[in-house]
Amino acid sequence: MPGRRSARGASLALIGGVRRAFAPGHWWFIYAIAGLTATAVVYAFVDEAARNWLEGGFGIVGGSLAAFGAWRNRGSHFGSWLGLAIGVVLLACGDLAWAFLSPDGSTVPVPSAADAVYLAGYAAAIVALTSLTWPRGTNTLESIFDTFIASLGVGLLAWVFLIQPASERIAGLDTPGAFLTLAYPCLDVILAILLLGSFFGTHRPFSTQLLYVALAMFLFSDVSYLRATLSGNYVGGGPSDVGYFLGYTIWGVAGLHPSARLVGRPGALRGAPLSWLRVL
Fold this sequence. Notes:
By secondary structure, the protein is mostly helical. The protein is 73% helix and 0% strand. The chain is built from 10 helices and no strands. It has helices at residues 2-21, 27-45, 48-73, 78-101, 113-133, 140-167, 175-196, 206-231, 242-256, 276-279. Helix 6 packs antiparallel against helix 7 and helix 8 runs antiparallel to helix 9 (242-256). The longest helix has 28 residues, at 140-167. The chain is globular and about 50 Å long. The protein starts with a helix and ends with a helix. Mean pLDDT is 77; it is low at 10-22 and 268-280.
């Protein structure tokens, strides 16, 4: 009998551990592990043409889970999180349109139907991030001042690594094509500046930090894409696109994490008092 009781106790403990591991508060971690593992499997066993399609699939899953997380967390900025999720899904749909227009993974002429979807995704993400990250509460002016100063540095880096390489691609393009080619790096810079608005607060929820990482992944792949297209070596689904796979996954993790409900609250974006040292 004692042996039976101990076996039953061990079984109950195992079941309890599994339940705790799969509790709603841990879903973000489970999805993070699943997304990273899936990315590794895709790059280890799937060819580049198929990766081009799977990239969009990753984005739709990540955006959908971000929307689900926003609904479950029910923070004060549910609408902003939902808008961000819609933006991510639209960007993923742009990837699918790209894969449809270029099954072999080569570059797609600009403009194309994919560009319309991409621009809609950027617009939704920019509006949502503006609402989520705009400084609120005390020391709002100081946070805006810090963001402006940091934005100058971001703009300089963007000019060197994004805008200048993009400007080299516009030769021979018509006006819409040249405009779109330069618009994408500028939109990336806007997203980065919006996230900087929450960087200088005294408290940054973990979800906000995940948004930084997701955007960094996208910027890495955008820079790699520009440089590869300039040299004529870009192939959709190649190693340079891994940032998109990871970025889409991290967008979803950010929305699922319980701290997502804190993003955008006045206390989360409260900055330190302005001093003459910070001005200098």
